[in-house]
Design a protein that fits this description.
Layout: E1 12-14, H1 20-26, E2 40-43, H2 47-59, E3 64-67, E4 83-86, E5 93-96, E6 101-104, H3 110-118, E7 122-123, H4 134-139, H5 147-150, E8 157-163, E9 169-172, H6 178-183, E10 194-201, E11 203-204, E12 208-217, H7 221-231, E13 242-246, E14 258-261, E15 264-267, H8 270-277, E16 291-297, H9 300-308, E17 316-324, H10 328-341, E18 348-353, E19 371-379, H11 385-388, H12 391-398, E20 403-405, H13 423-436
Residues 29, 66-73, 76-77, 87, 106, 127-129, 132-133, 135-137, 139-140, 142-144, 188-189, 191, 194-195, 311, 409 line the site of flavin-adenine dinucleotide.
């Protein structure tokens, strides 16, 4: 043992010792806890603890997994053997309203951050659910509120404090360690350093937050998705086109299968918001919708409440996803199959008009395309594991000939390997990794070990 700070019982749990299993369970948000067991779990309270843990890992030949909020669906941080470094307690947050920047820790909840900014007339493209931490969210790219207009959240990262594989503290931005700065914008679970702080650009809050709400019976699947695919590239940048299919919709008190179009809009006036949403009222079967609200004002708090009805805590989740530019005719057979076989609510299928990215900044992120589709299998009872385990992956696998790639946000790489970074970017990332983590101290994406 090299450093005493990782020996303090309140911060360190070794496999087989009291408290270990509780600490392991607490690192994973998903109710489905994988049978993977690190040798030691270290709960860092500050950057000194991170430095000490990395030096300890190096001295003992441990590989390192890092956890901020543990919302990775696949629990990517949780691996067999080695050291698991939990940095969720690094959750500081200082906002400079004059400079329009914020210094935040990786353990800061993205939704708390958004809510605190909201109360000051400020804004950040935080994720659509409560509780995700900024650490993992920003590293994997971060598709958040109003991202079509203001970009992925990682595009608002101005710089970051990182502890490297050998325990050195560095600051990364376009002038200092620019390769690490680039890698931190999208490498996600393949990042090879521990982020202990981010400097973020914050934005002014748009004056109006609103939504539309249309609900269609599931039988109109062909008409709704054909139309949704056709209009996707014309949707106003201030609108996030979201088409959600579920077996029930408790938020709208509906207990049978529906397709819901509830799309956030961010604008400077109600008139502008309603105008931006107008295209979403043009579905050819609009007269058959069960609910039809072209525009209503709402709040970020209401949005979080509504979204979380699809992501209850304590449930078991397996997800998968794909980007595509395929036509509606090509996509429909797969979409029909998804809908025919969909497990009960809260399981759901999201079809998103992506519109998010066009190379605004140099970043490692992605294989984005016009449409993003994601499947969320959600169930509660362990006796249903076998029954539901394959729904997300098998449906995405069946459509993989139409996929450009996948997003790390909803990755399922341990079960279904798929491409998520362009080949040139992957080659450059491998070079940067070799320079900063030559011994492969950090775990990489599941299914990509050894690179
Ligand atoms: C309910 C729910 C809703 C979601 N909604 C969205 C959404 O709207 N938009 C979106 O883009 N994503 C969304 N996601 C995906 C989510 O953003 C990612 O899973 C993200 O990685 C979670 O961050 P975390 O810190 O909580 O997770 P963690 O599991 O702690 O982190 C994921 C991985 O990132 C790496 N990592 C984390 N922190 C650090 C660090 N400090 N230093 C180095 N590496 C680190 C590790 O490799 C870790 O395995 C959602 C996930 C859930 C569960």
């Amino acid at each position: 043992m090299v450093l005493t700070s990782v020996e303090k019982s309140e911060k360190t749990y070794r496999r087989g010792e009291p408290g270990y299993e509780e600490a392991r369970r607490a690192t994973v948000w998903n109710g489905l806890l994988p049978d993977r067991f690190p040798d030691v779990i270290v709960q860092a309270h500050d950057t000194d603890d991170v430095v000490a843990a990395l030096r300890y890992a190096r001295a003992n030949g441990h590989k390192v997994g890092v956890r901020s909020g543990g919302h990775s669906w696949a629990a990517s941080h949780l691996r067999d053997g080695g050291l698991l470094l939990d940095v969720s307690r690094l959750d500081h947050c200082t906002v400079d309203t004059a400079g329009m920047t914020a210094d935040v820790g990786p353990g800061k909840s993205a939704s708390d951050f958004a809510t605190e900014l909201d109360s000051q007339g400020l804004f950040f493209p935080s994720g659509h659910c409560e509780g995700i931490r900024l650490g993992g969210f920003l590293l994997q790219g971060g598709y958040g509120w109003n991202s079509p207009a203001i970009g992925l959240a990682c595009e608002s990262v101005l710089g970051l404090e990182v502890v490297t594989a050998d325990g050195e503290r560095i600051y990364c931005d376009p002038e200092n360690h620019p390769d690490m700065y680039w890698a931190a914008r999208g490498a996600g679970p393949g990042f090879f350093g521990v982020v202990t702080g981010f400097k973020l650009r914050i934005h002014r809050r748009p004056a109006v937050v609103g939504t539309c709400l249309y609900m269609y019976p599931i039988e109109l699947v062909d008409e709704v998705y054909t139309w949704g695919r056709e209009i996707s590239s014309e949707v106003d940048k201030r609108v996030e086109l979201q088409i959600l299919a579920t077996q029930a919709n408790p938020a709208a008190a509906i207990d049978h299968p529906t397709i819901t179009i509830a799309s956030p809009v961010f604008a400077e006036s109600e008139e502008e918001a309603a105008k931006a949403l107008a295209l979403l009222g043009t579905c050819p079967v609009a007269d058959k919708s069960m609910i039809s609200v072209p525009y209503m004002p709402t709040t970020l708090a209401n949005w979080y409440t509504a979204v979380m009805t699809n992501y209850p805590k304590g449930h078991r989740y397996i997800v998968d996803n794909m980007f595509t530019s395929a036509s509606a005719a090509e996509l429909l057979p797969g979409i029909r199959k998804i809908i025919e076989t969909m497990p009960p609510h809260p399981s759901h299928f999201i079809f998103t008009g992506w519109n998010a990215s066009p190379d605004r900044v140099d970043k490692v992120y992605g294989l984005e395309d016009e449409i993003y589709m994601a499947l969320y299998t959600v169930w509660q009872n362990p006796s249903d594991d076998e029954r539901y385990r394959d729904w997300s992956a098998s449906n995405m696998a069946a459509m993989s000939h139409l996929a450009t790639g996948i997003a790390l946000a909803d990755e399922n790489l341990g079960r279904r390997p798929a491409r998520f970074i362009t080949e040139p970017n992957m080659a450059r990332l491998d070079e940067v990794r070799s320079a900063y983590d030559p011994e492969g101290r950090f775990h990489s994406w599941m299914g990509y070990e050894g690179k």
